[in-house]
Amino acid sequence: MTRRWLFADQLGPHFLDDPDQPVLLVESRAVLARHRFHRQKAHLVLSALRHRARELGDQALFVQARTYAEARAQVHEPLSACAPTSRGALELLGRLPDVEVLPERGFASSRADFERWADGRTRLLMEDFYRDARRRLGLLLEPDGGPVGGHWNYDSDNREPPPRQPRGTDAPAVLDVPEPWWPEEDEIDEEVRADLDRWEASGEVSFVGRDGPRRFAVTHREARYALHTFLRKRLPAFGPVEDAMLHADWTMAHSLLSPSMNLGLLDPVECARAAEAEYRNGRAPLASVEGYVRQLIGWRDYMFHVYWHFGPDYGRHNYLAARRKLPRWFADLDADAVQAACLSDVLAGVRDRAWVHHIPRLMVLGNYALQRGWSPQELRDWFHYSFLDGYEWVMAANVIGMSQHADGGLMATKPYAAGGAYINRMSDYCGGCRYDPKQRRGEDACPYSAGYWAFLARNRERLEGNRRMVQPLRGLDRLADLDKVVAQERGRASTAP
Ligand SMILES: Cc1cc2nc3c(=O)[nH]c(=O)nc-3n(C[C@H](O)[C@H](O)[C@H](O)COP(=O)(O)OP(=O)(O)OC[C@H]3O[C@@H](n4cnc5c(N)ncnc54)[C@H](O)[C@@H]3O)c2cc1C
Ligand code: SF4
Using an 8 Å Cβ cutoff, are 224 and 12 in contact? Predict the structure, then answer.
């Protein structure tokens, strides 16, 4: 059996053909030095690699080298590898001697499945892809092949606002669900922390964000604990408040499993089947289970396949001609420079944990960048390096497509731009903010509300042909003070709001 080269995002048992297969693991310092990663991301990846090396013992060759090519040169035998998830790494393998590249693993649908499904379609709608995957994998189906419960999608049940602050107390609102599973650090984490401190002190690498306790799994075993805690204790609450935000509850009922999934510690199909079992055994409602399964085998896979399907040019799209540079306060995660309660809290979440859930990413961070006309490519790189679960493949469709509408609508039918009213409805931020979500002008003008109108005014011509933008653009035409709002926001530009 050839030795299997496992990349740092292929760390679960499903990347081996046989549990005893010999393994190569490479820790490359050059990768860390090339970009300014979040400190906790560097920690998580190194800790996961080193834990896998310890788990495998003599079965693994663990090479710490400057580059992958240097590591390859130290191994004098043929290798096989499951296709890596980025174009750069795939091309690199093609250049190295004697490495057999196998189809990718770690996703619910293969690239061949996606291409078969996409063939001949004019629109590649995620919802259609998801239904196809459910049928192919036999997930949440009735015996006649239809969807359990009669519907494919329970999204309309899953858009509730967050719970209110409990009456008669000063305690901030939190969701009434058990805590997620939290790991305990061990001596490998200690060693990683000491190495990162040393490399940073010597100037070899530099990081963004703060160090902090490890909050996410680094082994298959830990990831399974996290999964089971989520399925048994938190999944029932997942669906209804999936889109809600509370300033005192950063986890809500989310799974927090994206870092584990993207390190390859968990197999998404196994996770989806385990979630289905919770529904079949009467322990979790269908809307929550279907919502989770859709994220996992629908959205996650779809994002991966869009990255490959549309090729490298996709990442260069800039339909809205957004060319402003990311301001320093944002790039450096300087949450204290920001007075807008929502943005300050979410940026602090990135600084302190390198993770926030989907809606803060899309409707607070992404929405702000979209409104201000920041470069989608700079923003993509910022997400990639600042988030624990950020990888090249996941960025293309999430940032370039969904969040920044830079692909002109290939991915999402309209831009995810929204004013303060949306954030006010879906969170408890506005009550404690120095701005007022209803004001678009003056000292108290909410930067999101005013920014929304300025965004529409700037992009009116580019958005005019979009059916879903007819209503918002009519609203824009009714604004008597539009010129003043636009001038005000031009003044605010990219300064910290
Ligand atoms: C601007 C932006 C940037 C994002 N960057 C990343 C990223 O770097 N890495 C990442 O994995 N996800 C990213 N996402 C998608 C999503 O926000 C995260 O997957 C999710 O918040 C992870 O939290 P969770 O594990 O608790 O997810 P849950 O809410 O519990 O969802 C279940 C699982 O579905 C998968 N998933 C759901 N939506 C997506 C999606 N759009 N793309 C990929 N996987 C998805 C994840 O594996 C996740 O664990 C991004 C979304 C946006 C809008
Ligand atoms: S008022 Fe505006 S800036 Fe303040 S929290 Fe609400 S949406 Fe955010």
Answer: no
